[in-house]
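User: Could you check the structure of this?
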Amino acid sequence: MQKPIRLGMVGGGNDAFIGRVHRIAARIDGEFELISGALSSTIEKSIASGKALGLSKDRNYGTFQDMAKCEARLAEGIEAVVIVTPNHMHYPVAREFLKRGIHVICDKPLTATLSEAKKMVAAVNKSDSLFILTHNYTGYPMVRQARELVESGALGKLRLVQVEYVQEWLTEQVNNKQANWRTDPMRSGVGGSIGDIGTHAYNLSKFVTGLSLSHLSADLDAFVPGRRVDDNANVMMRFEGGAKGMLWCSQVAPGNENGLRLRVYGERGGIEWQQENPNHLWYTSFGEPKRLLTRGGAGTSLTANALNRIPAGHPEGYLEGFANIYSEAARSIRAAQACQPVPKDVYCQDVMDGMEGIRFINACVNSSSRNSAWVSL
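Assistant: Sure, the predicted structure tokens are below.
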């Protein structure tokens, strides 16, 4: 096995859920080794978090600026950095590392604002380094199977796309770190649920179908009194080529935990996948019985099976799917280091996928502010 890629992290300190997830996913396949970090917005918390994770004193930084400058000067400095900060910090952090030739792995959405997204695109284009956006749900084997069924023409010309991501955790006012920044437009951006989970749903629908969104009509609500960003969104979508779709995302739907669900129907068949049961994909050829495809089971493709770690019947889930994104990121980084093209079986999301997500968020907010008028992307 090749030597692990030297990895740094910005954000994701002791009390950050997503930072812990990224660290686990990065090390599942042994492709990365976390050796450096600036893990919090304050120097004291950053140093304490790094110490708790076992970072050496000289690689445990108080600020991301110091980290970027020092690591770039080291012969054995980090080769990539993962950014797991609130959205408003994605661009300034990424800029510091990109301009120093360090590859960037960034949590979604791309940025908090459209203007920052445009600056991010410019920074990536100016740099020789890779920018990889972690839309982790694209890493599930059965999502790859769904994509392959669509690409093969098994569903025929697509007609309908139904996608939803519903949760309950913000049904009432919640006072904790995770809720506070997600409901603060200065840190999250103009989108609440549409930015936090709606972008996941939208990205998944595009990843599987390959369709390009033409117009949308959105109705965004903030049901909880005093909330400054949306906590529920209903979006009608018109795709190029004639397909129609609906997206529902909500963080105020009691009884739902992480209900990400995608259904796609064409002239000849349909598919259905749910994140809470990710090892299953339902496929129906019109006029025939509904068929259950299982991860690693009969009828699954080589593309999907390439992401499996254990035999069929042994569940793989969220962390393994996330780890697939990191393994593909590692393959992309190694290819770049060898001055080779990214392998064709790697499906990393890039800065333009991130820009598409930001345009989607802004179009939804714009439409909703105009009484759900149809707007173009």
